[in-house]
Amino acid sequence: MTEKRAQWGSNFGFIMAAAGSAVGLGNLWKFPYLAGKNGGGAFVLIYLLIVLFIGFTIMLGEMAIGRHTQLSSFNAYQKISKKWAFVGGLGVLAGFVILSFYSVVGGWVLNYMFKTVIGGIPADSAAYFGSFISNPILPIFWHLIFMAMTAVIVFKGIGGGIEKACKFMMPALFVILVIICIRSVTLPGAAAGIAFYLTPDFSKLTAGAVIAALGQVFFSLSLGMGCIITYGSYLGKEENLAKNSMIVPFLDTLVALLAGFAILPAVFAFGFEPGAGPGLMFVTLPQVFAQMPFGTFFGFIFFVLVLFAALTSSISLLEVTVAYMQDQHKWGRSKSVITLSGIMFLIGIPASLSMGVWGSFKILGKNFFDFLGFASDIMLPVGGLLMCIFIGYVWGIDKAIDEISNGGKLPFKLRGVFTIMIKYVAPVAVIAVFLNALGVF
Ligand code: TRP
Questions:
Q1: Ligand 1 within 6 A of 316 CB?
Q2: Tens of pLDDT along 364-404?
Q3: How far does the chain reach from its first CA to its final CA, in angstroms?
Q4: Distance 316 CA to ligand 1 centre (A)
Q5: Which of 163, 230, 306, 433 has the most C-beta neighbours closer than 10 Å?
Q6: Do residues 311 and 106 lie in contact, with contact meaning Cβ atoms separated by under 8 Å?
């Protein structure tokens, strides 16, 4: 290719972009409802342990592969070992799967953002949510708008598009989140929610909950599909990977925890059930806002927050597939962005319709939307497992460490910890969780 490979403008820009990829609907929509369903504090504790022992390691591994090869996932694997290119290919496929349904939910967020201001969410928010998502046209319209916003940012490239957007949206998101947290925890009756969130109820911590936590760590940290490989490939050789791979999961986890504080105390304060599941954000929260002083304002900025989080994630998903077309097939950025976002928009249509008119069409007993989510829940840990094996036994720890340390010194004992984690702990943990899910033990 004649074009010079793009690079982030600064390390801060990379961190905002990578944290932007990580912080998304996974943190704001899924994490609080998973915690609500799986025993509050107990789930939070398990989640933190998995981030600590597996999340950091895989994040560092992905950054190392990307920065070393300066290529996006498929070509990165291929450059190191031809036989392993399929792992990168699996990641590109996962990008299609995830963004197709992610954009549908992004569209819901846009709808809620506008609806909060114009007319407000009807008092019977459950009925409203049900009729909105099963409507054959409206959610697809918003899905189109969300996908178009994603495409416009990615179209503008790494520095001028993704980095610039994240450098604005991520700090804004953080400020809005803190405002909403303060509002939520100071509501009368919030204490019960805080207690629920912080007190572990280990009786609720079933095998299913542990698997949910593992899947959530991969999804929330954008791991297991080459997203961080791709972002890492635009990173300069002088940057400190070890530090970056700690900051990004730290920020992601901080936002997930804050999202719990923003949502659960308010839910308790107004007497709702924390275990509402996926409807927590779209059904329960509008009712919470309706009862809160200045609820329209808080509701609106809340959905702006969610929109920013979703967009900084969706652009990273699109970028994985775009970078693949550029690196492997030498397509230009504009052609890649238009074609790929178009295809994902099309796959999203049946996903949206499967919540309404096409609801009876089932794969493995799931409607198409749930099936895409299920496929990503499997693909990400499998991708992460293969990556650990790849680094530990194919590429080799020494080469990975060389890349991580820039040929210089590593922080205290990192080498030993990284080796043990990537060769033994992370693979065994992922396999154990799978076997457990299959009922083997
Ligand atoms: N991490 C994002 C979230 O929490 C979603 C996401 C973006 C993602 N890029 C990814 C998930 C890559 C898996 C892999 O919403």
A1: yes
A2: 888 999 999 888 888 999 999 999 999 999 999 999 999 99
A3: 51
A4: 8
A5: 230
A6: yes
